[in-house]
Design a protein that fits this description.
Blueprint: E1 6-7, H1 15-26, E2 31-33, H2 41-51, E3 59-64, H3 71-85, E4 90-95, H4 103-115, E5 119-125, H5 129-136, E6 145-149, H6 157-166, E7 169-173, H7 184-193, H8 197-208, E8 211-212, H9 219-226, H10 235-242
Parallel strand pairs: 1-2, 2-3, 3-4, 4-5, 5-6, 6-7, 7-8
Helix pairs in contact: 1-2, 2-3, 3-4, 7-8
Family: Belongs to the aldo/keto reductase family.
Protein name: Aldo/keto reductase
Organism: Cohnella boryungensis
Length: about 260
């Protein structure tokens, strides 16, 4: 699984998503993250075919949405996603949110799809520690990935430590705080390292061991976001960024979802 991928949340189906995926693949990205909810799986599949990059060298993630959850419903939803992607398998399939009363049956369906060879890796998204503990009390296959909102203002240290202990890879969505990059420390570090604020934050994610999927539809920004492997943050700068934490979410709280 690539350490850095492209997220396509809110990218419009059609030209916007296709151009973003093509730009990412041309820039060397090999991870693309989509979801049933995003309504752009067809564009992801078309772009991958148009790129000429081999399917087996690109890690494609998609997710089952809340109103598709339940055992039989998830099987059907996954097959619809594969059809839209025009692919024979998914590299990673996630439970998008922990819908109470449904996520265990949803995950059981995903386990079965994995055992049938239709998914290469399985996991969850937006699961807090208690959700993971509840799921692991009955599942056959421990989630391999937990994709959550994580960034310098919401570092998720307790969840990160729990996932590390359990061998679950944490993946960060909304890593750039929806463009809220005007933090004095991040600006100072951008000057120090000769990088953009976004590059500093992405590099921080990589150095603490998180996989991240910054979203952009602009080719130049997509290329800039990938230019993070030619420098390293000093340990004290990683610690300083950790210290920005405010437990501040920009998205929904997994314990209070009504969608």
């Amino acid at each position: 699984m690539p350490r850095l991928g492209l997220g396509v949340w809110r990218a419009k189906d059609g030209e916007e998503t296709e151009n973003a995926v093509l730009a990412a693949l041309e820039a060397g990205y090999r991870g693309i993250d989509t979801a049933s909810l995003y309504d752009n799986e067809r564009s992801v599949g078309r772009a991958l075919k148009a790129s000429g990059v081999a399917r087996d060298s690109v890690f494609v993630t998609t997710k089952v949405w809340n109103n598709e959850q339940g055992y039989a419903e998830t099987i059907a939803a996954f097959r619809r996603s594969l059809e839209r992607l025009d692919m024979d398998y998914a590299d990673l399939y996630l439970v998008h949110w922990p819908v109470v009363g449904k996520y265990k049956d949803t995950y059981r369906a995903i386990e079965d799809l994995y055992e049938q060879g239709l998914i290469r890796a399985i996991g969850v998204s937006n699961f807090n520690i208690h959700h993971l503990e509840d799921l692991m009390g009955s599942c056959r296959i421990k989630p391999m990935v937990n994709q959550v909102e994580m960034h310098p203002l919401h570092t998720q240290k307790k969840l990160f430590a729990f996932c590390r202990k359990e061998g679950i890879q944490l993946q960060s969505w909304r890593p750039l705080m929806q463009g809220r990059l005007e933090l004095p420390l991040i600006g100072e570090l951008a000057v120090k390292y000769g990088k953009t604020p976004a590059q500093i934050i992405i590099r921080w994610h990589l150095q603490i061991g998180a996989i991240t999927i910054p979203k952009s539809s602009k080719g130049q920004r997509i290329r800039e976001n990938a230019d993070v492997f030619d420098f390293e943050l000093a340990p004290e700068d990683v610690v300083a960024i950790d210290g920005l934490n405010e437990n501040r979410r920009f998205g929904a709280d997994p314990d209070h979802i009504d969608f």
